[in-house]
Amino acid sequence: MTTGAAAAHPRASDPDHAGADDPVAMAAALIGRLDRDAAVLLACHVNPDGDALGSMLGFGLGLRRLGFSRVRASFPEPFDVPEPFRFLPGLDLLVPPADAETPALGLSFDAASPTRLGELAAPLQRAPSWLVLDHHASNPGFGTLSLVDPTAAATALVAARLLDRLGVDFDEAIATCLYVGLTTDTGSFRFDSTTPEVHALAARLVGAGAPPAEIALRLFDSRPYGALRLLADVLGRSELSPAAAGGRGLVSSYALPEDLARHDQPAHVLESFVDILRTASDADVACLVKPASDGRWSVSLRSRGATDVGSVAVALGGGGHRLAAGFTADGDVPGVFAAVRDRLDPPTGPTPAAGDGGPTSGPVQG
Ligand SMILES: [Mn+2]
């Protein structure tokens, strides 16, 4: 127990408290030194998910609470907030990427590479300071200060640590945003990444007013009927390849742009479908090929536990985590499936027989 003045919070504006090896403290000191009317630009990755938007908007609202008057947030085109996130507090911080000017301070959220920030990478690169808040193991390190923690379940957790260091109290709006990030990336607290720190933060956020049932209903348990029909098509054409992935099995399917058009659905409704494919207990790996905006394919990979799909995605030019990853591809759908299969079972060298003793952790290189 501490007593007296020693219990006071360290002042974020006091650089003496910024340990040179503690990026969170360094980031807090940097923010603390900034004029409150300085332009701040927050950015998250293209096609933002709940963690990208939640961590960015929650942090932006926190900066506002600190008195920053020129906080803007954005994400690359297509600049359209997916329907499930339109209830989020802080949407008034958003500006189209074309209106994003070079700030005094830039921050990026949940983006594992500058490419993922699209046209917003340029103003961030021009900014005197660019703080990178992320949790992807594939993040190579960029920006002027890297707050990348691959052990963190969500970027929302990294954002919460920095808000704590800045002395920001979580109000209902901030808590709702961060909770959306936390619950998105832990799959509603079901994934391995659900650490004691995750539950401790979730408890604080619910205590501050984040509504768990409403958030779960909007994020996980709501679909237009057309999306259910689309899901039926995707499941109906799925294929199970028991021999793939060293005999651990692959279940794969795809959606075409005309499928979206037929059911009058936006592309983001496909995001959750790969996790439904992943429930097939006779396949360790699930793969879903989805249309991307520019005529390319966005490929989602999931593992039930025995396969490192993160390294598969990295080898194919993407990124992600061991059990959930993705990449972007060109060509036709069969070609994309062939590329994934080749990475799961490299054609060169001896192929181990199925069931001969567990996962082949072959050198799937990055
Ligand atoms: Mn994330």
Helix and strand layout, with pairings?
Elements: H1 23-33, E1 39-44, H2 50-65, E2 70-74, E3 105-109, H3 121-126, E4 129-134, E5 145-148, H4 155-165, H5 172-185, H6 196-207, H7 212-220, H8 225-236, E6 239-241, E7 250-254, H9 257-262, H10 273-277, E8 285-291, E9 297-303, H11 309-315, E10 319-320, E11 324-329, H12 333-344
Parallel strand pairs: 1-2, 1-3, 3-4, 4-5, 7-8
Antiparallel strand pairs: 6-7, 8-9, 9-11, 10-11
Helix pairs in contact: 1-4, 2-4, 2-5, 4-5, 5-6, 5-7
The structure holds manganese (II) ion.
Please supply descriptive tags for the structure shown above:
single chain; about 375 residues; alpha/beta; inorganic pyrophosphatase (n-terminal core); Diaminopimelate Epimerase, Chain A, domain 1; 2 domains; six-stranded mixed β-sheet; five-stranded parallel β-sheet; 12 helices; 11 strands; about 35% helix; disordered N terminus; disordered C terminus; binds manganese (II) ion
Q: What's a concise summary of this model?
A:
By secondary structure, the chain is α/β, with parallel strands linked by helices. It has helices at residues 23-33, 50-65, 121-126, 155-165, 172-185, 196-207, 212-220, 225-236, 257-262, 273-277, 309-315, 333-344; strands at residues 39-44, 70-74, 105-109, 129-134, 145-148, 239-241, 250-254, 285-291, 297-303, 319-320, 324-329.
